[in-house]
UniProtKB/TrEMBL annotation:
Matches recorded under SMART domains: FCD, HTH_GNTR
Organism, scientific name: Mucilaginibacter terrae
Keywords: DNA-binding, Transcription, Transcription regulation
Presence of the UniProt keyword Transmembrane helix in the record: no
Protein name: DNA-binding FadR family transcriptional regulator
Length: 217
């Protein structure tokens, strides 16, 4: 998971906390993006991601021409919290379905910028393996897959995938507490996946992702 994702998650919690304290009442509009950027001292993209997360959780709703409105009930549980409590087999089954669809779309819809970002995260993943740095491996792996999700061109799939990252990271922590063996063993598959997406080779991309999923890498 990259720093931008972590920051937007933190900002969404801060905004939700302000709503719960009564700073923004049900039916009120929260401040526009420029004001939120100053208030929480973050950039526009972080604010947009934070507001999207709140909308997905049912805390606010975005109305065209009106702005972002606080909902009457603000006790909706964020989706990432629900996922943490869910049965992992069920979560992983949905993740597998998401990954298959995301890869197919990424083959068709990726941009040069997406490819460059994927390649950077893949290089970081390899460097972390060589340094035996488990945390860096996890961060680079999540960032690599998140970029593939972004390359799908489907914002809903991308947002869903972001919500799954916390559960996937927790899975990595429980599955391999002492080392990075699974990251090292699966790196060639991630390289195959990257090259297939870059080359717009749908069959090869699906096969590489399926092997990754079958081995829970």
């Amino acid at each position: 998971m990259d720093a931008r994702i972590k920051l937007s998650d933190r900002i969404s919690r801060l905004i939700k906390h302000d709503i719960e304290k009564g700073k923004y009442q049900p039916g009120d509009k929260i401040p526009p993006e420029p004001e939120l950027m100053k208030l929480y001292e973050v950039g526009r993209s972080t604010i947009r991601e934070a507001v999207k997360a709140l909308a997905m959780a049912g805390v606010v709703r975005v109305q065209q021409g009106m702005g972002t409105i606080v909902n009457a009930t603000t006790d909706a549980e964020p989706i990432d919290s629900k996922l943490r409590r869910a049965d992992f087999d069920e979560v992983n089954a949905v993740r597998r379905m998401l990954d298959r669809e995301i890869v197919s779309l990424a083959v068709e819809n990726h941009t040069t910028e997406h490819i460059q970002e994927m390649e950077l995260h893949l290089q970081n993943r390899k460097a972390a393996i060589e340094r035996n740095n488990r945390q860096a491996c996890m961060d680079a792996d999540i960032a690599f897959h998140a970029t593939i999700a972004q390359a799908s061109g489907n914002s809903v799939l991308f947002n869903l995938y972001q919500s799954f990252t916390t559960v996937i990271l927790d899975f990595f922590s429980k599955r391999e507490p002492q080392g990075i063996a699974s990251f090292a063993m699966s790196h060639y598959l991630h390289e195959q996946l990257f090259n297939a997406i870059k080359g717009k080779k749908l069959k090869q991309a699906r096969e590489a992702m399926q092997q990754i999923l079958d081995n829970n890498y």
